[in-house]
Amino acid sequence: MEDFFNRKATKDGKQSFCKSCHKEAKPYNEERKKYYVEYNKKGKEHIAEVQKKYRAKNVEKIKSDHKAWYEANKEHKAEYYKEWHAKNPTKQKEYNDRKRDKKLSEKDLH
């Protein structure tokens, strides 16, 4: 049992493969990692492109769904924000200060 890495998640507290197998698999895992990073980047770009097309095509459906969700959760959200404001008065003050400063800086620009 000395030949296995420790792992808290398992019942016996050991990894499912030995240290020597782990060493042999390391180069293979590095290659998999490179492939995954490249594939993940392409996947994120593809997902963003598909979402953009969907949103452009279904503007009215998205608006109606959002409005229906908003109406269904209006009371719950109001209650949530009320509780949040009570628990986080300093955060609320900081947010209001940032918002006010932003408005003032926009007035100076115009």
Task: Write a structural description.
The protein is mostly helical and 110 residues long. It is 81% helix and 7% strand. Strands 1-2 form a two-stranded antiparallel sheet. β1 and β2 (14-18) form a beta hairpin. The longest helix has 39 residues, at 19-57. The protein is elongated and about 65 Å long.
Structure summarized in a few sentences:
With 110 residues, the chain is mainly α. The chain is built from three helices and two strands, in the order E-E-H-H-H. The mean pLDDT is 87.
Descriptive keywords:
110 residues; mainly alpha; two-stranded antiparallel ribbon; 3 helices
**Helix content percent band:** over 70%
How many strands, which pairing sense, and closed or not: the largest β-sheet?
2 strands, antiparallel
Order of strands, widest sheet: 1-2
* End-to-end separation: 73 Å
Describe the secondary-structure layout.
Blueprint: E1 4-6, E2 14-18, H1 19-57, H2 59-87, H3 89-109
Antiparallel strand pairs: 1-2
